[in-house]
Amino acid sequence: MIDVYFYPSPNGLKIPIMLEECGLPYRIVEVNILRGEQFAREFLRISPNNRIPAIVDLDAPGGPLSVFESGAILQYLAEKSGQLLPQEVHGRFEVLQWLCWQIAGLGPMAGQAHHFRAFASEVVPYGIKRYTDEVNRLYGVLDHRLADRPFVAGGYSIADIACWPWIVSHERQGQPLEAFPNVQRWFETVRARPAVRRAYEIGHERMADAEAYRYLYGQTAGSVAERSGWPAR
To answer: Which CATH number belongs to the domain containing residue 111 in this structure?
Structure first.
């Protein structure tokens, strides 16, 4: 059994999608990041970066194993199940480099676009333009990539699972999908997969209210230490 520490954000939803695809048994442990549950000591022992998702594989060789960071979790589950990550070196690194592209580029830039366009406490035109334009560039990279193949790395893989939840909020990022026809075709293809539909039945991201802003933004080493009860360094 795999415990999935979960909130239905784009990064959080990657993991149920993967588990549904590869058929490994799991159970959801919800972490309400809108109310500060990511700062609980018990959770920080599993995910020291106070972020979801994280997992604990209770059946790992040698005893329970915790893994945090969505990219590491996807790779771990692919290796555990023997699915969605090729063993052959060329195919394997085709997938891993696009997984890293999502982790280092698409996710962070889309997240900043979300913030400045929808959540910032003040309108910052430079921030809105900076991140909307960069996400637009990344959509262009993905559209070009998908021009001659059905999925990001050829066959369906953890690269698709990593990228797809970030495209769900394309409107919030200021990106019309019709401007990227290859991305749109791929997006609809992945959305129709039964495993993706099942994963999205678990929950959908909730809009932050005023109280949630206390926990989501403006974190420092000191504020995390105070909320977790750990001594500041």
So the answer is: 1.20.1050.10
